[in-house]
Amino acid sequence: MRNRHLFLVSLVISCSSTSPTGSSSDAASTKTVIINEVFAGGSSPDAPDWIELESLSDAKVELGGYKMRDNLAADLYAVPTGTSIDAHGFLVFYADDQADGGIAGGVHLPWKLSAKKGDEVHLIDPNGVEVDATIFGTDIPSDKSWGRLPDGTGGFVRTTPTEGKPNL
């Protein structure tokens, strides 16, 4: 009986806390920009890994001064001034380890995501506060993404890739 009580206490604690996977819809609802979808199944410079941010704001959000990184703190990338997301819009960052990447336009990160080892994505505001993060493992098939359902507010699950669009 004691083990059962410990399990229930553990379950209550894990359900009430916000994890790095961003699974708490309450936490996401108070933010203006979130990580909405991650695709680590990129197969070439023309089809790279990507990270989609979503604006939860009723106004355009300036991202200059924000930073992003993967699992390595040394991979901290400063989002260029003038980069913004329209109200309730999406912005895709290509994790292609290229200055200009294989995709014209867009924002290119100087690192790639690891589908084989699993990885993380962190979004940090201009004050140095981590506003969102997610961790994904090696169990995501190459034709799937790691996205929030419901779109913009839910926890992360395997999804159909919808680059720059609401999640399915």
Structural summary, described in words:
The chain is mainly beta and 168 residues long. It has a single domain, classed as Sandwich (Immunoglobulin-like). Helix content is 12%, strand content 33%. The protein contains two helices and twelve strands, in the order H-H-E-E-E-E-E-E-E-E-E-E-E-E. The protein has helices at residues 2-16, 25-29, and strands spanning 33-39, 49-55, 61-62, 67-69, 77-78, 84-85, 90-95, 107-109, 119-124, 130-136, 145-149, 155-159. The protein has a six-stranded mixed beta sheet, with no helix packed on it. A four-stranded antiparallel beta sheet has the order 5-4-9-10, with no helix packed on it. A two-stranded antiparallel sheet has the order 3-6. The longest helix is centred in the first third of the chain and has 15 residues, at 2-16. Mean pLDDT is 83; it is low at 1-29.
Largest sheet: 6 strands, mixed
Q: Would you tell me the overall average pLDDT?
A: 83
Please state the structural category.
Answer: mainly beta
Reported by name, the CATH topology is Immunoglobulin-like
Q: How much β-strand is present in the residues?
A: 25-35%
- Specify the CATH class: Mainly Beta
> Which superfamily, in CATH terms, is the homologous superfamily?
Lamin Tail domain
Helix and strand element order:
HHEEEEEEEEEEEE
